[in-house]
Amino acid sequence: MTIINRPYIHETDYKKVSEFLIKHYLPGYADGNWLEPAWEYAIFHPALNSDQMGKWRLWEVNTEIVAFAHYEWRLGKGFFEFDPDFRYLREEMLDYAEKHLIGLSDKENKKFLFAYVNDYDEPLLDLLSKRGYQRKPDETRPLYRFEIPDLFPEINLPEGFHLTSLAEECDWAKVHRVMWRGFNHPGDPPGGEKELISRQKMFDTPKARRDLKITVKAPNADFVAFCGMFYDENNQFAYVEPVATDPDYRRLGLGKAAVLEGIRRCADLGAKEAFVGSDQLFYQAIGFRKVFNTACWVKYFN
């Protein structure tokens, strides 16, 4: 068996990576790779530095992907995805990341690599420890799961508010405003066609469904809460990303209603479970429970 490794080529490899992540998903997220919807969301997010994607690396056997090393938004944060039969490539992949995926810190002007590893991957954790990496607790990535019940919980909203979706009303200016304010940016969002196109790119991704992009509409017709929801029909799960509520409308149950409505719609399509990459009490109160942490380990280089 011959294993080759080569650079990622976006035009041909985006779909191949998607298929790889779908193929190796295990129920309950037992595989630990990125969820395919998380991959799709990241690729089309405006924060992604696409200029350096050629530094991502694929390992293949007979043109089939068996491992993948990449960053998330920019150089300096390394992630490792595996066919479970090829986890022995860990050391080779880390060698590659330490040469080609390192970043440069703005404040200290030091080269560094954040290596993200699931807390059950003991061989990779041991390898990082031996190489002098240190745990960085404030960069931990939790993953939570919601088992969709047969009797779905009731969804309640205050009088005058109602649930809708981008399939029913697709107003990118309203989406832009609730996302801007919901992520605690001050004042009104920056205007212009470029900003609205950027928002549309985030949510009209190749497999996205506008009927799963849920909004809560206020009595004044503004969107005041938003839940982006993905559905993986191959593995029958929902993925929550992102959720935002306007600060003027918090503690009314609007974000909870948007999340539950998105999950309910996915359940109608066949979803058995839902995932979110957050440990906020907000999600735990809904019923999400932890699957694992993806721990961050950092090393600085001379």
Beta-strand residue percentage: 25-35%
CATH superfamily (homologous) name of the largest domain = Gcn5-related N-acetyltransferase (GNAT)
| H/E topology pattern | EHHEEEHEEHEEEHHEEEHEHE
Structural class designation: alpha+beta
Number of separate domains = 2
Q: Supply Rg.
A: 20 Å
Give the CA-based shape. Answer: globular
Secondary structure: helix percent: 25-40%
Q: From the 3D coordinates, which CATH architecture of the largest domain would you assign?
A: 3-Layer(aba) Sandwich
Draw up the topology in text.
Layout: E1 4-7, H1 10-23, H2 36-43, E2 57-61, E3 64-71, E4 77-82, H3 90-100, E5 103-104, E6 111-118, H4 122-130, E7 134-135, E8 141-147, E9 162-165, H5 172-182, H6 193-203, E10 213-217, E11 223-232, E12 237-245, H7 254-269, E13 273-276, H8 281-286, E14 289-301
Parallel strand pairs: 4-6, 12-13
Antiparallel strand pairs: 1-2, 2-3, 3-4, 5-6, 6-14, 7-14, 8-13, 8-14, 9-10, 10-11, 11-12
Helix pairs in contact: 1-2, 5-6
Can you describe what's shown?
The protein is an alpha+beta fold and 302 residues long. The chain has two domains: 4-141 and 294-301, Gcn5-related N-acetyltransferase (GNAT) (Aminopeptidase); 162-271, Gcn5-related N-acetyltransferase (GNAT) (Aminopeptidase), CATH 3.40.630.30. It contains eight helices and 14 strands. The protein has helices spanning 10-23, 36-43, 90-100, 122-130, 172-182, 193-203, 254-269, 281-286, and strands at residues 4-7, 57-61, 64-71, 77-82, 103-104, 111-118, 134-135, 141-147, 162-165, 213-217, 223-232, 237-245, 273-276, 289-301. Strands 1, 2, 3, 4, 5, 6, 7, 8, 9, 10, 11, 12, 13 and 14 form a 14-stranded mixed β-sheet that branches. Strand 3 and strand 4 form a beta hairpin. The protein is globular, with a radius of gyration of 20 Å. The two termini are 37 Å apart.
